[in-house]
Amino acid sequence: DEAALVAGAMEAGYHFVARKGNLVTIRVDGEASERTYTILALNSFTSKRKRMSVVVRCPNGEVRLLLKGADSAVFERLKPPESKGDFDTAAWRSTIRRRLDDFAVHGLRTLALACTTIPEEEYKSWKLQYDKATASLTDRDKSLEKVAEEIEGLGTLTLLGATGIEDKLQDGVPEAIRDIQAAGITFWVLTGDKRETAINIGYSSGVLLENSVLYELGLPSDAKGKINPSQIYHDQLSAILMKQKETGDSVTTSHGKISRSQVPGPAHSIDIKSINDVKSSPVQELSHEALVVTGKALEHILASSRLRGMFLRAAKPCQVVIACRVSPKHKSALVVLVRRNIKPEPITLSIGDGANDVGMIRAAHIGIGISGREGRQAVNASDFGIGQFRFLKRLLLVHGRWNYRRICKVIAYVFYKNFTLTLTMLIYACMAGISGTSLYESLMYNGFNFFTMFPIVAVGCMDQDVRAETVEAFPVLYVSGRLSLDLNAGVIVENIVTAIIHAVIVVLVPYLSYSGLDQAGVGGLYVFGTMVFSCLVFLMQYRVMLLTATFTKYTTYSLIVSFVLYFTFLLSYGVMDFLSWEFYKVPYEMMSAPVFWIVLFGVPGTALYFDFLAKYVRRELFPTLMDIATEADYEIHGASDSGENGGISRMISGNKQEDRMISLKSNLEVKNPVDSRQFSPQSEIENGRTRNQRLRSRFMIFLGKTLKRIVSNKEQEGRKNSMASSVTSGPQVTYRRNQSGNIGRRAVLHVSSADIHDRSPKVIITESKSDRWEEKDSGFSFSHPGKTYKRTLTILTNPLRLKKKRCSRTESKIEVSNSRLTGEPTLTQEDWNQNRPFDNPFFQQTLQRWQEPLTPKIIIITLFVTSLAFILLGSLVIVASNGSRSVTVTYDGVLSSSYGINTKKGSSSLHEKKHITRHCTIGSYDKGGRVCNVSFIVHHKMKAPVFVSYLVTNLYQNYYTYKKGHSVSQLTGKSLSTEDCAYYTTKGKQTYYPCGLAARSIFNDTYVLLNPDITIHTDNIAWPGDRYKYKNVQNYPNICGNEAICLNDTYPDIPELQEQGVTSEKFMVWNRLAALPDFMKRWGRIEEDIEAGSAFTFQIDANYPVASFGGSKSLVLTTNSWIGGQNYFLGISYLAMGSLCLLTALVFLVKQSMCPRKMGSVELLQEYDGAGPTEGNFTVLSSRSKNSLSGGP
């Protein structure tokens, strides 16, 4: 503004020459000598004062006060008008008021100017107070304000005139406001401008329409001093509320109390009918009503709780609220008023470009600062900074919507993920006697969020449900964020139900395979827990893929990295026995079992069936607006997208809906500049270098960047556009404030798109050693009574300033010819890239991507493929199980209808009691009568090796107390320390070796095969890793019976314990705790084939008591196939799941063939978006065709 005033004074004949310290020199046309003024004091501008003044000493020694400010602040300080003469009369003041009103009506920023002469004595007295206030250390601002009031006292000033400065709207503002309003966002315009100026800007910006009904809150001029102003505002608000009640608009609002009854069916969460409700939601139902309130009215309203309530009730139904002549305090107070008093609390966004907007920006939920003419105070105090207002549209509708949906996905996923993890532990707790045993190894459990972090981070950063062009064309899609449709109670309940189903699947599928793992000799608590955990990790990755709308290379990388990290952790951690002794070699044993990999597919496959079933039913019967949008977007763009250079390049090159941002006119040539006085505003002197010099250096960098950017972008595009376009626009470097800056701050060259393809465009900038602003007649118009001046501004630059050198007079040329940049000066790559954002596909989110919505076709095909995979795997499991043989003899314990001998492959136990003798049934700890013989015939050939195992039921080895009792120091042979044991630690002065419940409850039944031609080997039945990690302590077995109570002291009937101690493989097998109460453990092996019809007789020494806890014992002979042990339950479950998927796919296919739903398309989306402009509807949307969307930028 100040630069414009200086330029205007120059056009009137008063030239600002220079300033040195407090001395200001000007030159007046027609005068031979220059004038020098001395600045004596400065009374700064504040939003409360609405004015600023300066005390100066004129060349003739006279002291004057010069004041400028808002007309309301200036006119009240004027002395009475002169009755005679032709200056400062009542008529003159009336003329100035009319001019001010005319300026305001045309959207100009107005100022009133006044002055007065101060007697010397009065000045000296006042100056003492001024100096004292300046030096004050407490309440300095208040003291200066008080001193300024004294010198600017009421009734002392003479009116000089008024000014109007054009504040031209930036490009794209009306279009941006229209689309933002169409998205359901309500505008409150808070400005310090006059009422007329604010209303005019409202119309020009599109906030107000021609047929808008304006409600005004303000004090009429004839009502001043008559009655209480608060009563007037109360009456005005009452009248507005009455009018709104008559029209019925007071019950609907876009940012007030929104309930489900007011928004009957928020689209995206109910059905296709609810999409119509978007058009009848609060934003669409509002009439064209706007509320205009003045700053003085706000003072009374904010001071009264009753008026505040009435004001909010009147403002909520209005589409626009305009507050004029408001201070920064009023701006922030209004934001706080809306946040605290409207329920539910609306999300507020404040956007501004000046220091006066800082309080408002900080008070809102989201603050956005516009960098530019008004400095960077607003940007520094904001959450986001943008260069122009029109970028707010993309920030909100595109990035805001994307980020809202992303963060909602992340939050819902994290909730679902951790809920599923906890539920699996809860389900397993029921299998462990509700004892608190953890299913997962501790470090693995703690790393769960790390293993599953990368894919969801990629989704949270780069996922795009629909492309930016689609969102910009259909702003109604913003409804998902406005009505919180992606994160609410319904979404949470949906995720809870999904987590419950998935948790059951994660535990159930490994549970069905556990008997086969036991039979194969790889069962155990940590194996089962690691298998469930692995299934859970795979399930989480599948879930992320299901949530992902857009797949990029980084999404794929994140999935790969997640899997690689997890398996790298398992393989690495599995050999670090010093970190987790119990976990040693567990992952290797687990991965060696083929059933593990089969289960790893079954868990996400089963979850996929239930998820796809739910999605198909919802999308077909209750499609949402988001479903329509994704399908329409797919119809427009297809599944794949090659990506673009970046968002900045798009904005520079423009698109069909936006004007170009930067361009150059070909054959522009500015020569022979005319010398003029140096343009040097106040405070420009800085270390011998003026602001103009700094501006010229920056402009040279800007121009170079612009040329390089245009050339590089066009080379990358491969000259796809036509080169036959004609030149349509010329240079516009003016004094006026425009969309990119104003005089004294920056300049921009504007050229149409055709200029870029001109075969010989060039720019010649002539420089002068004088380093001054130069003028030449050609285009600039400045209005002044009685005379019109036309000027143009030529910006002089010194390109060698980039190298910190001075230069003499020179003429530099920058030429662009056929996409080539040549000539002087030569700018380095660092100069080109200075302050430029990263313009690449990653940072601008325009990566090459693949996007396929879950249409019925995709769902049906996926179910068909899944069914085939389940049927194939189920068949393989059953065939492999048929290749495994088993013979089970239940000989002791609580007998039920399921006991007996099982010699049939895969069948349940036969009920033949003759093989159950009372001599083998122990109901107490009686040592007598515990030997029995069991004979049976093997009906099928069993190939070597044949494993002899024992099966114990209802024994909770996974009980927390049982699991806790062992000492790693003892089992690794380091010491006899019992610090880790909870039970069986010492007896008198002797130490149990090894200590703990597991070691003191070894299965001590013995099996003697009475067939003389067959031998049972008891070696190599433990894991190789177990044989490596178990070691006896030093001096074993000499310590037994003395300082330690060893295993053979407790179990003398197990002869190998005396010699081998904890290195006994039978002890190792027993000490590898089972995951379930019913478990099978190996006792020995037969290294020769058993022919069909062979008879076997076992002598069983039944020492282990099981009847007391309701258990049973069985002798089991088994062989393994390639899959391990028998897994009939798993195979049958897979076949059932495959059949169910196939049947469901066929039902969906028949439904699609007979009565398909109309898929989303541009036409359908236009229908629900409001196809084309509608007369009388405020949130008008322009008609957009498919071609306008698919054409691209």
Highlighted features:
1193 residues, alpha+beta, Calcium-transporting ATPase, cytoplasmic domain N, 7-stranded antiparallel beta sheet, 5-stranded antiparallel beta sheet, 41 helices, 34 strands, 41% helix, 16% strand, ATP hydrolysis activity, ATPase_P-typ_TM_dom_sf, EC 7.6.2.1, Phospholipid-transporting ATPase
Q: Topology, please?
A:
Elements: H1 2-11, E1 14-20, E2 23-28, E3 35-43, E4 51-57, E5 63-69, H2 71-75, H3 90-105, E6 108-118, H4 120-134, H5 140-151, E7 158-166, H6 173-182, E8 187-190, H7 195-205, E9 213-217, H8 229-247, H9 272-279, H10 282-285, E10 289-294, H11 295-303, H12 305-315, E11 320-324, H13 328-341, E12 349-352, H14 358-363, E13 366-370, H15 377-380, E14 384-386, H16 391-431, H17 442-446, H18 448-451, H19 453-462, H20 468-473, H21 479-482, H22 489-520, H23 525-547, E15 551-552, H24 553-573, H25 586-591, H26 594-621, H27 625-637, E16 640-641, H28 647-653, E17 668-669, H29 691-717, E18 762-766, E19 774-784, E20 787-794, E21 811-816, E22 821-823, H30 829-833, H31 841-844, E23 849-850, H32 856-882, E24 886-893, E25 901-902, E26 931-938, E27 946-952, H33 960-964, H34 968-971, E28 986-987, E29 990-992, E30 1006-1009, H35 1024-1029, E31 1044-1045, H36 1047-1050, H37 1056-1060, H38 1065-1071, E32 1079-1086, E33 1094-1101, E34 1112-1118, H39 1128-1154, H40 1162-1169, H41 1186-1190
Parallel strand pairs: 8-11, 9-10, 10-11, 12-13, 13-14, 17-18, 29-31
Antiparallel strand pairs: 1-2, 2-3, 3-4, 4-5, 5-6, 6-7, 15-23, 16-23, 18-21, 19-20, 21-22, 24-25, 24-34, 26-33, 27-32, 27-34, 28-29, 30-33
Helix pairs in contact: 3-7, 4-5, 6-16, 8-12, 11-12, 11-13, 16-19, 16-22, 16-23, 19-24, 22-23, 22-26, 23-26, 26-32, 26-39, 27-40, 32-39
Enzyme class: translocase
Subcellular location: Membrane
Binding site for Mg(2+): 353, 357
